[in-house]
Design a protein that fits this description.
Blueprint lengths: L1 H11 L25 H12 L18 H13 L8 H10 L5 H9 L6 H4 L68 H10 L31 H18 L4 H18 L4 H10 L1 H12 L2 H8 L6 H18 L3 H12 L1 H6 L6 H17 L4 H7 L3 H11 L2 E2 L2 E2 L4
Antiparallel strand pairs: 1-2
Helix pairs in contact: 8-12, 8-18, 9-11, 10-11, 10-16, 11-13, 13-17
Length: about 425
């Protein structure tokens, strides 16, 4: 079921690489940025995001009478407004119109239990008829379970036969035009490709008994930047810092301070004109640079440097080495099914399918942000992948202890 839903999502949201590169720079993190006064920003953030009226933050400033303007507003709403329309209503309505109607019996009863939904959604043909109604068809594996009709409507979706590989021929997406690809080549293997492979990778250099060539993987790259290639020594030194990072995480209030700085950084970036989605995706694409950025914002540079300094790292070059190592590890560990999906993304096959859906410009832009982030998560650097492979198991075991998160930042995303 999870594989089915993942494939469905990727099929609906995967444009071409060439059309996304314009967004690549958005996820860069400036580790030399000018950090604002955190205490002042915290005060501003608290005032902007709180529902409390900070005009009355001192007892001697509390007015003697009720705010007349506020009184008139609530009186008006109480007299005339029956329901405050949700900002997500139109989006939900569009999504319902995009999915096959075979989904309706399994999600309609749940929607009728959601308080505040308008008639635009609940009276939609196909949804209206499902109120308090148990689905007529359920997956064969559940049919023997007694009293299943008392199941919560929120769980009806798991009874849908199509999620378990049954009746898949009934999945007809609206607005889709099924077309066969033109000019499909008859030859699946390109002889020129095989020739180029043999030329680039001579067989005599790799057969049994071949003399191994000297490589420079073990040269340590000090003061690395975002473009410095990884070496085996770099990866080994990075892995050696992970035990110390675990100890740092458990000291005092270091972890909670770094977790609590996240919304403040997001608020500050939004003030600088950075899209909220992009601000979040930066942390996914470059987790280690995000960690170092937070360390600088919280003023814990000296304490963090003591840990990574044992392997001769500075803050910035540790961040770049860490991000490149995790990216290479991610590519080296990707399942074959995901790799195939990425190939389709890069060649733009699925992007043409996306154009057949009635997405708003805002939705298109958000999807492009996410898809460029996916592309960057799995961007390939053959050298980096090659030097990381011998350390895959070590990295896996270390990250297992971190549970793939560090100081509130996800280190690996699927």
């Amino acid at each position: 079921m999870k594989k089915f839903m993942l494939l469905l999502f990727l099929c609906l949201a995967s444009p071409a690489q060439a059309q996304l590169k314009e967004f690549a720079h958005l996820y860069d993190i400036d580790l030399n940025e000018e950090i604002p006064l955190v205490w002042r920003l915290q005060k501003e953030y608290k005032k902007e995001t709180s529902e409390y009226d900070w005009r009355y933050d001192f007892t001697w400033r509390i007015p003697s009478g009720f705010n007349y303007d506020f009184k008139q507003k609530i009186k008006y709403f109480g007299a005339f407004e029956k329901r405050i329309e949700s900002a997500d209503e139109e989006s939900l309505l569009r999504e319902l119109k995009r999915i096959p109607k075979v989904f309706y019996p399994y999600i309609g009863p749940m929607l009728h239990n959601v308080k505040g939904l308008s008639g635009k959604i609940l009276d939609l043909p196909g949804i209206k008829e499902t109120k308090n109604k148990f689905p007529d068809k359920i997956a064969s594996r559940f049919q023997h379970i007694p009293h299943l009709e008392f199941l919560s409507p929120e769980l009806y979706i798991y009874l849908m036969p199509q999620l378990w590989g049954e009746d898949l021929d009934t999945l007809e997406f609206p607005h889709q035009q099924q077309q066969q690809p033109k000019d499909v080549p008859n030859i699946r293997i390109n002889p020129e490709f095989i020739h180029n492979v043999k030329k680039s990778v001579p067989v005599e250099n790799y057969w049994l008994g071949a003399t191994p060539k000297k490589n420079d993987w073990d040269i340590r790259n000090y003061y690395a930047d975002v473009n410095t290639p990884l070496s085996g020594a770099d990866v080994k030194a990075f892995v050696a810092t992970l035990d110390g990072l675990m100890k740092f995480r458990l000291q005092k209030d270091y972890e909670i301070r770094n977790i609590m700085i996240d919304p403040l950084i997001g608020y500050w970036e939004e003030k600088q004109g950075v899209d909220r989605t992009v601000s979040f995706l930066k942390t996914v694409v470059n987790p280690c640079q995000t960690i170092v950025r937070k360390i600088k914002w919280t003023g814990l540079q000296a304490e963090f440097q003591k840990v990574i300094g044992e392997q001769a790292f500075g803050l910035d070059d540790w961040a770049y080495t860490c991000d490149k190592t995790l990216k290479a590890y991610r590519v080296a560990s990707i399942p074959a099914a995901y790799a195939t999906t990425l190939k389709l993304l890069r060649k733009g096959y699925i992007y043409r399918e996306l154009q057949k859906y009635d997405f708003t410009p805002e939705e298109i832009m958000t999807q492009k942000y996410f898809l460029e982030a996916i592309e960057q998560l799995f961007s390939k650097n053959p050298n980096d992948i090659k030097v990381v492979k011998p350390y895959k198991e070590q990295i896996f075991q270390k990250l297992l202890k971190f549970k793939n998160h560090y100081l509130g930042t996800p280190l690996l995303m699927p």
